[in-house]
Amino acid sequence: MAETDSLGVVFPFSGQRRSTTALGREVLVDALREVDPVGARLAAAETNWRTGYPAHFRRLVVAGLDSGQAARTIATHGLASIGERLSWAALGGVETSLADAIAARPGPAPAAPARQLVTETVRGDGIPEHVVTIPYRGTRLEGGALLRQLEDWTTRGIIEPSCAAAVAEVAAHPEWLDLSDVHLVVLGAGAEMGPLRAALRWGADVYAVDLARPQLWRGLLEDSKRYAGWLHLPARPGSGRLEERAGVDLVTEWPAARQWLDGIDGRLVLGNYVYADGADNVRVAAAVDALTAAVCTQRPDTALAFLATPTDVFAVPRSVVSRSVAAYDGAKLSRALRGPMRAVSGGRLLTRNYLPTADPGINDSVVPQQGPNYLLAKRIQRWRAAVERDRGRTVSFTVAPPTRTRSVVKNRALAAAYAGAHRFGIEVFEPATANTLLAVLLVHDLRTGPRSSGQVWVDEAAHAAHGGLWTTAYEPRSALGLAALLGLAAR
């Protein structure tokens, strides 16, 4: 294990090694225990977590359908388990629970050599955009063209009607794009799905946080100079090149990032767009959640922003189920193949997305190849959104569309499935289209204030831009294998 893997937010020991599997299983058991004790026992008894985990993550959603309180109890216990079971490993070998590190004052012992962070600012040369435009297939949609595209996406079941209505409302109020009354903190500034570039085009103050990677910062700095906003970033003091001094590691230095954020005056919008490969995804998700909890405690007016992955489990309204059932009944191309393929596959191929009478339905778009660590990291964000929304905080939470990001296309199987997904009514977005659409939805949520229906699953489904994974005729896992074959053939 590398030295950096044993510092900062780390997995607990299980026997002689740090175990991601044990942590994931135990967190789900803790989350389910009060609301669904049977589900908790089944998770505890799972002997092959790396292949059996999807059923238990599905149980987290189903168990929370009875009431909003049930779902919030699951979220509260899940977050508490993350804080209690993950460790904070400081220099010198001292370890404490992450929960104790969050509560420490003035801060936990450093997990990496202490670094002073100063704020460096770059102002762009562009003119602020005062109209909603979304890049799409070689053009930029605005005005009537944008409204027609929103209608097309809605008609085809690519986005929810509430998503189209929210984007149209922002387009009708272009003054909402002026974000001078808030400071947008983008955690994971280099993320392809984040709002950083859109916000800079609108002239916003953006506080960018990401790893100390000169190439990443070089690209962000070059882009920021073309836009109209102000890019603020944490950096080591000195006179060297800015891209060489910029960045902070949230896994090992989140207390330093917290102190840096303390120096920002005014209302914060804390946007969580972090991602890492494998087990590091859980570590950085937990680190960001620790930072979020600390900031929210100190600054009650802080707003939060999250993007949910579409390849997860969600409860969906009856209207979505009805669309999927109609698509199943009218699927001319695949109808003749359904019987033989289901027989050959033992019922695993081309199965219905939902029971026709389901209300709500359960959409299970989990891609097993992404692994349990990916889903746990995303669940931490969903839990935090649910808990803070219940406290009356402004929370922007949007299900993002399937998108051809770098992390997706480097997975050959998933890239092939996305290439053939259109055969099943699923639209895969380009990053520029997706991140701009989602940035507009963030503006809508900030301008319309706190929103809570009382039901967690209803709030999670609002404004979803799921790309058709919810409304397609077939359960996504039962069709994406065929989509991959079609995608490979098309290539």
Q: What class would the helix/strand composition place it in? A: alpha/beta
Number of strands: 16
What is the CATH fold-level name of the largest domain?
Rossmann fold
Describe the main β-sheet briefly: 7 strands, mixed
Tally the structural domains: 2
Segments where pLDDT lies below 50 for 5+ residues? none
Helix content: 40-55%
Under CATH at level 1, the class of the largest domain stands as Alpha Beta
Between the first and last Cα atoms, what is the distance in angstroms?
A: 39 Å
| CATH homologous group name of the largest domain | NAD(P)-binding Rossmann-like Domain
Report strand %. 5-15%
The spatial strand order of the largest sheet comes to 6-11-10-9-12-13-16
Annotated CATH architecture of the largest domain: 3-Layer(aba) Sandwich
Estimated radius of gyration: 22 Å
Helix segment tally: 20
What is the overall pLDDT average? 93
Quickly list its features.
491 residues; alpha/beta; 2 domains; 3-stranded antiparallel beta sheet; 13% strand
Question: What does this 3D model show about the protein?
Answer:
The chain is of the alpha/beta class. It folds into two domains: about 5-105, no CATH class; about 120-320 and about 355-490, NAD(P)-binding Rossmann-like Domain (Rossmann fold, 3-Layer(aba) Sandwich), CATH 3.40.50. About 50% of the residues lie in helices and about 15% in strands. The protein has 20 helices and 16 strands. Helix 9 (about 215-225) links the parallel strand 10 and strand 11 (about 230-235). It is globular. The model has no long low-confidence stretch (mean pLDDT about 95).
